Amino acid sequence: ASLAARAGRERASCDDHVESPAGFRGHVDNDRFAELAFTAALGGTLHGFAGYFHCDLHGGVSISTNAATRSVGMFSWFEAYLPLQTPVAVRTGEEVVVRVWRRSDAKRTRVWYEWALASPVATPVHNPG
User: Fold this and answer.
1) Which of 5, 32, 77, 123 has the most crowded Cβ, counting Cβ within 10 A?
2) How confident is the model at residue 18 (pLDDT cuts 50, 70, 90)?
3) Region for 26 from its dihedrals, namely left if φ exceeds 0, alpha if ψ lies in -120 to 50, beta otherwise
């Protein structure tokens, strides 16, 4: 079994959307940041992180790519894998901290994710710009 599957799950609200005021024609900042920390239940080699999308809409309706709550017939959203360039050894009970940024350009035509491991070792930011 993978370290990620044994380590548990963390939730992040990286995808909250900001509404533009009526008539506003400028740039709304849609960049987000989240820092997630968990304790490794078992030691192993960490190769990356899996990311899932889940959104509670209205009246108990939700859409999701998470295997536990996956929306039937959903084909426009997918899971994300955030790989580490160099795998990292993690010991049982060690804290793992990952930082994730959602970035966008000034024209609002591109959106991408960047990530870095902060603990047990610090890595460079992956997927910059």
Assistant:
1) 32
2) low
3) beta
